[in-house]
Amino acid sequence: MLSVSAELQIDTLRIDGAELLDAMVTSIFLLDQGLNVTYLNAAAQTLLGVGPNQALGRAIVDLTRGAESLLPMFERVRQGGEGLVQRELAWPAPGGVDRILDCAVTQVIVGGKNRLLLEIEDITQHRRLTRENALLAQLGGSRLMVRQLAHEIKNPLGGVRGAAQLLERELLDPALREYTRVIISEADRLTNLLDSMLGPGRPPSKQLINVHELLERVYHLLRSEAPPGVVIDRDYDPSLPPLTLDPNHIIQAMLNLGRNAIQALAGRRHE
Length: 271
Hints:
The protein is of the alpha+beta class. Helices cover 53% and strands 17% of the residues. Helix 6 (124-170) packs antiparallel against helix 7. The longest helix has 47 residues, at 124-170. The radius of gyration is 35 Å and the shape is rod-shaped.
């Protein structure tokens, strides 16, 4: 944002001065006491989306709705004589896209008459980059937290799997061993899921598999989670051929469907 003293004399704006102002990226407006535009540089014309013929002699509030929020600043500067700055002002731009601007209003003397010098700096891109950098930093922190959490979860998973293996050796009833096998397979599935979270994104690990085997694992898990009064049953199509798919993805999808159904049925029992 430029700093212009109150004693600055802008008279007829000689051609070299006009070229200098037109080369600036800051939008410069010169307003009379009625807030009518008496000069605007090339950046200001771009900001408003109008040429000098359409802007000169017209009130700036008639050229853009964004100037309405500056009316209190204009009034304070006219009465107090000191320059004012307003940061991060939302300004409607041509095309309906708001821009974020820093605005400064200073009282100057031109040809012996008081004028208001309005300087506007477009910080939209800077604000966007700042926001994106903040989001990237936040994302990096979230990823680090996920990686740390994944490491913490993997340790007890290994203990659960080992305990299930030891318990399976002690069980004589094959039906009970079926549950320990479910525990072991689910611990392995969660470990693989955590490994995928820790490493770079990888495509699905597809393999040719009998989908009934996966659904049987889902069946045992859902049966153990079902509340009293909700019966889990299955009816497989024996003609279904082996499919090429990622078993972990299918198991998780079927678990989600089954758990949603259990919740719906459990809620209906209380109606």
